Amino acid sequence: MSGMFSTLAIPASAGIGLRSPHIAEMLTRRPSAGWLEVHAENYMGDGAGVEALERLRQTYPLSVHGVGLSLGSARGLNRDHLERLRKVCERFEPDLVSEHLAWSIADGAYLNDLLPLRYDEEALAIVARNVETLQDTLKRRVLIENLSAYLAFADSSMNEAEFLAALVARTGCGLLLDVNNVHVSAHNLQYDAKAFIDALPAEAIGEVHLAGHATNQVGTDTVLIDDHGSRVPPVVWALYQHAIDRLGPRPTLIEWDTDVPVLDVLLGEAMWADMLTASIMFNRRQAARREQTTKARAKPICLPVEYETKTSMPVLAAFAAARSERPSVSSQAPSLEEIYHAAA
Predict the structure, then answer these.
(1) What is the pLDDT of residues 232-250, one digit of tens each?
(2) CA–CA separation, 204 and 166 (whole Å)
(3) In sequence order, what DSSP letters do the residues of 85-117 get, joined into one string?
(4) Does 288 fall in a domain?
(5) What average pLDDT does the structure give for the chain?
(6) Domain boundaries, position 157
(7) Which residues of 273-306 are buried (b: 16+ CB within 10 A; e: fewer)?
């Protein structure tokens, strides 16, 4: 039955995660933002925050992101938690609902983390059963997010991308592509991040997440930690460029959960995501026009490694590659770096 549900529409633009320090300012300013996303578990009761979200929902499209269902639990979903999630969705009528490909419950105890699964047929059957229960309860398609990983099970019979593709085929669920998670996991587990994205079923990807990460030194090894505590770094912007070049525009969220900055920083990051997507699509249209007139394949925009090292401004790395394909502009025009500093 799950495969019969469809995802509701949300703008293919950039939104921000709504965090408590910004709620009052969002209510008074009502700034331009494509959409908002909230953690479901923060709105399962009553209070000022819930009332504020009801008001903001009248202005902004909404996505509800779950973190506590533990889709990988062999004992099935916690029915009380699932009912609370159902009521959140009934109350706020979000355009998107998502959860993580992870487990976080053991013997009735909730663990304060999203833990990885073994990727094999047995785990696939468990997760598929839980996803079907979730979608049947909510009566909607749910997006499943790839995890940031720091270890892998040696006896997995498939990789995470293959597991997610099989889950989509079996349940009709959608996917939430967390680009930062892809980079973090690819670095920590030593695999090709772009190949991971290319292996996912493009038509299933209904949302994209962008965030920053921390770098930790463990002996001679560098470990990346998905902490959502900084601007989107150059390498993640570059990977996002690859994703959008393949997928086309998708609803894109700026996540920031630790060391939360002022609201305008999040809005600025969302602006850069929108501008980068627009730049990619503009160049795609231009390439199509050139191909129609010359019958020659247009040169794709790519991000050479040197762009990642020559600028400290995160999103400018991707823009530098895009700009190199365009005619030069007047020297009187402000540089992208000046614009970026002004926005920040």
Answers:
(1) 999 999 999 999 999 999 9
(2) 11
(3) HHHHHHHH--SEEEEES-EEEETTEEEEEEE--
(4) no
(5) 88
(6) 2-261
(7) bbbbbebbeebbeebeeeeeeeeeeeeebebeee
